[in-house]
Design goal:
single chain, 472 residues, alpha/beta, Rossmann fold, UDP-N-acetylmuramoyl-L-alanine:D-glutamate ligase, Protein-Tyrosine Phosphatase, Chain A, 3 domains, 9-stranded mixed β-sheet, 6-stranded mixed β-sheet, globular
Length: 472
């Protein structure tokens, strides 16, 4: 879009832009900013030799300079500092740069500020990747691929596609709490799937985490919130904009305000109700949703709520019947000797793993748990495993293994007939889980932990799991 192109040129031409972190996500950002005349500097604790050669080559291609090693955040002197999500905005070096006159921003801050398209933002502790992708699929079915964009925290950069967007375009964007800490421009439709304890190794406390998630509601024209989650339900009561609540449990119209609406289950029907008009209609049946699990039914309710007035019920139903799920989210890798291997590497919290286990009530489960510790309690997961009745084994690995094992012992999981073993490294844990499995079983990678103890992200962990499984 020409206006966006002009704004970017005026803002960045000849300006110094420091990018924090030499990760792969900053490589396209460096190229994008450079194309509008910015002078790029990369700051990272790792030396150039420790970085991926292809990433260094990408930075070199735009003439970027490097500041690396201990003290890499010291003495930042720039017009703009682009914060990667992993950097807290109150980090001393960042704050000092702002005192020197630098503007603190990020790829997502800039995108939401300048986005000319209709922007639907999705956040939450669980289900946000599936919900974001389902919204995109629904928009694409109604509006066409050229006018529909998917990205954000889900792994697809949006900023470098902004000049292809206009006022008729639609964007489905996943936003993490890390990103939302500094995003100040409003989205058109704000979706929060739920808020449960997560990332407490990064956030100072639960309230900061809630406050970060709640920022997505500021200035939104519509909100979509989970009525079954006490935190989001309370946020809804404070919303100035109309709210569409969704819930797997029936909601009484008396529980919502005149301006609000709801999507809920009525038996097997997913029903939309608008309080102001009293209108009620069935959008689809639960069995129309191809991907299994009650939590995916909730994801579809959230997505359907987000696209009301934009997408027809026919397009919503078409996506429900054809969409096979998000990669690394309960992904069937293969069936070998009667054993079903599922990759759900995206499950980085106990609540996600509990949901994944609920998908497999018809098969004995051999679950692989563990990764980097996010300062979460694993007690709810241990309690769910003990009560599940169909978990054959739990193979625990990685940095979070001691905490997980302590919770499993606390809830007497082994006394419930579950074989519990601690196996490192990751490959050996996968092989051990496979050795425990019998024909008709499932082997499920659902770590309930982040990946950063051994992998750069959950995608790499999931791909490695698939590589191991496909080599059996």
């Amino acid at each position: 879009m020409k206006d966006t192109d002009k704004i970017l040129r005026e803002r960045f031409e000849g300006k110094r832009a420091v990018l924090l972190g030499a990760g792969v996500s900053n490589a396209p950002l460096a190229k994008f900013l450079s194309s509008f005349g910015a002078k790029i500097e990369i700051r990272d604790k790792k030396s150039r030799e420790e970085m991926k050669p292809e990433t260094v080559a990408s930075f070199d291609s735009v003439g970027a300079s490097f500041v690396t090693g201990e003290g890499y955040l010291d003495g930042i002197d720039a017009d703009f500092v682009f914060r990667s999500p992993g950097f807290r905005p109150d980090t001393e070096g960042i704050v000092a740069a702002q005192r020197r006159g630098a503007v603190l921003t990020s790829e997502m801050d800039l995108f939401t500020e300048l986005c000319p398209a209709h922007l639907i933002g999705v956040t939450g502790s669980d289900g946000k990747s599936t919900t974001t992708t389902v919204i995109y699929e629904m928009l694409k079915a109604a509006r066409g691929e050229e006018k529909t964009f998917l990205g954000g925290n889900i792994g697809f950069p949006l900023l470098d596609r902004i000049c292809s967007m206009d006022g008729d375009s639609y964007v489905s964007c996943e936003l993490s709490s890390f990103q939302l800490m500094t995003v100040s421009s409003p989205v058109e439709v704000a979706v929060i799937t739920n808020i449960t304890p997560n990332h407490l190794n990064w956030h100072t406390d639960m309230q900061e985490y809630i406050d970060a998630k709640a920022k997505i509601l500021v200035g939104a024209r519509r909100a979509v919130l989970n009525f079954g989650c006490g935190v989001t339900r309370e946020l809804g009561r404070k919303c100035a904009c109309p709210v569409t609540y969704f819930s797997k449990d029936p909601i009484s119209p008396d529980d919502i305000e005149e301006k609000d609406s709801l999507i809920t289950l009525d038996g097997d029907d997913i029903v939309f109700f608008e309080k102001k008009t009293g209108s009620r209609r069935v959008i689809m049946k639960r069995q129309d949703i191809l991907i299994p699990g009650l939590h995916n039914c909730e994801n579809y309710m959230a997505a359907s709520a987000a696209v009301q007035g934009i997408v027809s019920d026919e397009d919503i139903l078409s996506v429900a019947r054809s969409f096979g799920g998000v990669k690394h989210r309960f992904e069937l890798v293969r069936v070998l000797n009667g054993v079903y291997y599922y990759n759900s590497s995206i499950d980085s919290s106990p609540t996600r793993t509990i949901a994944a286990l609920s998908n497999l009530k018809d098969k004995p489960i051999n679950v692989i748990l563990g990764g980097s510790d996010k300062n979460l309690s694993y007690d709810p997961l241990a309690e769910a495993i003990a009560a599940h009745g169909n978990v054959r084994s739990a193979t625990v690995t990685g940095q979070s293994a001691p905490k997980i094992l302590a919770s499993l012992e606390k809830y007497g999981v082994e006394r419930c007939g579950v074989k519990v073993t601690h196996v490192d490294p990751f490959k050996d844990a996968v092989l051990a889980a496979a050795a425990n499995a019998e024909p008709g079983d499932a082997v499920l990678l659902s770590p309930a932990s982040a990946s950063f103890d051994s992998f750069p992200n959950f995608e790499v962990r999931g791909e490695y799991f698939k590589e191991i499984v496909n080599s059996l």
